[in-house]
Amino acid sequence: MNLSILLFASVFLLLIARLRVVTVLQPRRQTSTSTRSGLIGIWFWVSVVWPVLFKAVLGSVLALYLPVSGSAVFVISYVPSIVIGIAIFIVALGSRDSFPYVPAILVMAVVIMPILIFGVVDIGVVGAIFMIVPTLLWCRALSVDVLNWPRLCYQGLLVLCLSMAVVFVVWPEAVVETCRLDKCTVAGQVLTSSITGNGNFLGLCVALLSVIAVYRQHWITVAAVGLASLIVIEISGSRTAMIGLVLGYLVVLGIGNRMSRVVALAAAMVALVISFVPVFRVYGLRDYTYRGALWMRAKELISESPNVGHGANYWTEHNAYRFSSNYAAHNIWLELGVAVGFFGIAVLVVAAVWALLTTDVENRYLASALIVTTVAVGFLEAPIQPYRTGLLPFLCPLILLLCSSGMRKRSVDTSETEDLAMKAIRNQNVLAGLTRDGAR
Question: Is residue 248 within 8 Å of 211, Cβ to Cβ?
Answer without folding.
Answer: yes
